[in-house]
Structure formats: structure tokens, C-alpha cells
Amino acid sequence: MNKEETKLGHKSSFSFLIPHPSSLGLVLLAAGASKRLGNFPKQLLEFRGKTLIRRAAESALASRCQIICVVLGANAERIKREIADLPIEIAVNENWADGMGSSLKCGLGKLLEIEPNLSAVAVTLSDQPLIDSAIINRLIEVFLETQNPIVAADYAETVGVPAIFASSMFEEILNLSAGGGAKQIIKKYAASIGKISVPEAAFDVDTQKDYENLLKLK
């Protein structure tokens, strides 16, 4: 028995099937209309030579997750061209304006169509440009080691995405209200989740000022 198998042998109070890395999916949420930024889709803003959507999609592909679904909504056709060449699934949520819960359900539903036996799903956002594959993989490692049903990012006095959810949480996701989101589930199960410190998650791009601050990191 190798070191990883030894760690996985410890049972938590919340039991679920230990996922093999090949059954891990990832939903990248990128459906928003960028209203606080103006008329330009923030998914297409550039940072260090790549658009935010391209950077987030490539980080997802470089992680241990094997099936990647990007959920688009507003400006879908325009944004899709930026990632059309990547080996990912693209789901267009026609009801994106209903809220993040709607897009999260859309993405998970698409992954389950492809892999009905999916064991876990990671959730990331296109507007957190400092989240990379190493951070996603840290979430996965803690998830596999602890067997918590949820492992989420701890940052700026909150707990949220990026996060990873075991299949035991899928029903909760699929039953989210349209205006709900991953944080709603994280809060509900706060007593049984795992957390890792991810200060990078605090940096998101919602406004022109946010983007100007991002560019200062070059």
C-alpha cells in the first residue's frame, strides 16, 4: 500500500465513494454579463498575454480533473471562439440571467451526461485570474486525503470557490435555486467541509478598478 492509499484508508464521519482521479470533473463558470465592468465581456480581458477565460480553461485542463465543462451565457458565441480549440466541453446556459445556481446546474448536468459515474466535481470561476492548476490540485489532494464531502477555498474571511464537491453533494447542486450558488451549499455543510487557505481567490475582476489592479501585478 502506497502513501496515498494509506491516507485514503482513514474514514471520515461522512462516507462516500473515494473517487479515482479520472472520474473528477470540473465546471468553469463564465456565463455572466459583466454589468459592473461595462459593455465589454470580462471573460475576454487580457492578463499576462491571455484572456481570463483562456487562462481559466487552460488551468482547468492542466489540473488532475479529466472532464472540463465551461458554462457560457451572455456573449456566448463571442467568448466561445476564444476557447473553441481546447479539448473541453462547452455548455451554453440559456437561462444564465437567472443566477449562478442556474449555470452550476447546467455545467454539472453536462458532465453527468458525459460521465454518469462522476465521483466529484470542482467548481472554478473565470474571473479569479490568480487561480491556477496548482491550487485546483491542492483542493483535490486534500479532498482525497480527508474524504470530506466538500473542500473549499478559505480567503478574505469567507469560504467559497474554487471548491470540490463529492458525488454525495450532486443532488444538492442540482436542486439549487437559480439564484443560489456553491457558497449556499458550502454554508449549509460548514461543519463537515475541508478548507485550504487560498488568498489568491480574494482577487476577482468585477469592475474596471479591479482590472486596473490586476494589471499592476504584471
Account of the protein in words:
The chain is α/β, with parallel strands linked by helices and about 220 residues long. It has a single domain, classed as Spore Coat Polysaccharide Biosynthesis Protein SpsA, Chain A. Helix content is about 35%, strand content about 20%. The protein is built from eight helices and nine strands. The chain has helices at about 5-10, 50-60, 75-85, 100-115, 135-145, 170-175, 180-190, 210-215; strands at about 25-30, 45, 50, 65-70, 90, 120-125, 150-155, 160-165, 195. It has a seven-stranded mixed β-sheet with strand order 5-4-1-6-8-7-9, sandwiched between helices. A two-stranded antiparallel ribbon has the order 2-3. The longest helix is centred in the middle third of the chain and has 15 residues, at about 100-115. The protein starts with a helix and ends with a helix. About 45% of the residues are buried. Residues about 1-20 have low confidence and may be disordered.
User: CATH architecture, please?
Assistant: Alpha-Beta Complex
CATH class annotation: Alpha Beta
CATH topology type: Spore Coat Polysaccharide Biosynthesis Protein SpsA, Chain A
Order of helices and strands: HEEEHEHEHEHEEHHEH
Q: Helical region count? A: 8
Strand order of the largest sheet: 5-4-1-6-8-7-9
Give the averaged pLDDT, no decimals.
Answer: 89
Shape: globular
Name a few traits of the molecule.
two-stranded antiparallel sheet; seven-stranded mixed sheet; Spore Coat Polysaccharide Biosynthesis Protein SpsA, Chain A; globular; 8 helices; alpha/beta; disordered N terminus; 9 strands; 218 residues
